[in-house]
Amino acid sequence: MAESEFIEAGAPLPRIRHARPEADFAVRIEWEDGREEVIDLAPAILSHRHFIGLRDDPQAFRRFRVRDRGDCLIWEGGQELSAEWIEQLAPSALANSEFRQAMKDLNLSLDGMAARLGIARRLVADYRKDKPIPPAIALATRYLVGLQRKAG
């Protein structure tokens, strides 16, 4: 293979353009593709002993930078969290409009969405309006939409 040949396989890796701390363990991420979202890093920070120093010191958590390649966040203590891992974490909130759009994308009625999420039909109706959506429901909804997209 010549030095100038490149091999591509799969989707491109996510790259972080800019990141800044928000409340608690949430971080506002601006991706290279232009997306911007607030992602709660608590599931990673609180579940790995590698991050003990960050979970015990909120100020230390807030002092991170984006590596020059945009492939991870790096803290002063040497801890790193990859852009791939960060992208897999669900954003901390799901707007009611996103929930309505998910139902539309999935072509599900109130009863259908309730059955898929394992919740009461009344809750689905409330989430379609203005009731705050719990993180577990947000995660499950995003999972269903992701499955739909993979299926084509």
Could you outline the blueprint of secondary structure elements for this entry?
Blueprint: E1 16-21, E2 26-31, E3 36-40, H1 42-45, H2 52-56, H3 58-62, E4 64-66, E5 72-75, E6 80-82, H4 83-88, H5 96-106, H6 110-117, H7 121-129, H8 135-151
Antiparallel strand pairs: 1-2, 2-3, 4-5, 5-6
Helix pairs in contact: 5-8, 6-7
Q: What would your notes on this structure say?
A:
- The protein is α+β, with helices and mostly antiparallel strands and 152 residues long.
- The chain folds into 2 domains: 16-88, Uncharacterised protein PF10387, DUF2442 (NE0471 N-terminal domain-like, 2-Layer Sandwich); 96-151, 434 Repressor (Amino-terminal Domain) (Orthogonal Bundle).
- Helix content is 43%, strand content 18%.
- It contains 8 helices and 6 strands.
- A 3-stranded antiparallel sheet has the order 1-2-3. The protein has a 3-stranded antiparallel sheet with strand order 4-5-6.
- β5 and β6 form a beta hairpin.
- α6 crosses α7.
Q: Descriptors for this entry?
A:
alpha+beta, NE0471 N-terminal domain-like, 434 Repressor (Amino-terminal Domain), three-stranded antiparallel sheet, 6 strands, globular
In short:
The protein is built from eight helices and six strands; from the N terminus they run E-E-E-H-H-H-E-E-E-H-H-H-H-H.
Helix content: 40-55%
End-to-end gap: 34 Å
Question: Into how many domains do the coordinates divide?
Answer: 2
Percent of residues in β-strands: 15-25%
Count all strands and give the number.
6
At the third CATH level, what is the topology name of the largest domain? NE0471 N-terminal domain-like
- In DSSP terms (H or I, runs of 4 or more residues), the helix count works out at 8
Largest sheet: 3 strands, antiparallel
Order of strands, main sheet, comes to 1-2-3
Provide the succession of SSEs.
EEEHHHEEEHHHHH
By secondary-structure content and strand pairing, the structural class works out as alpha+beta
Radius of gyration: 18 Å
According to CATH, the homologous superfamily of the largest domain is Uncharacterised protein PF10387, DUF2442
CATH class of the largest domain: Alpha Beta
Mean pLDDT: 90
Which residues sit in consecutive blocks of at least 5 with pLDDT less than 50? none
Q: What is the CATH architecture annotation of the largest domain?
A: 2-Layer Sandwich
Morphology call: globular
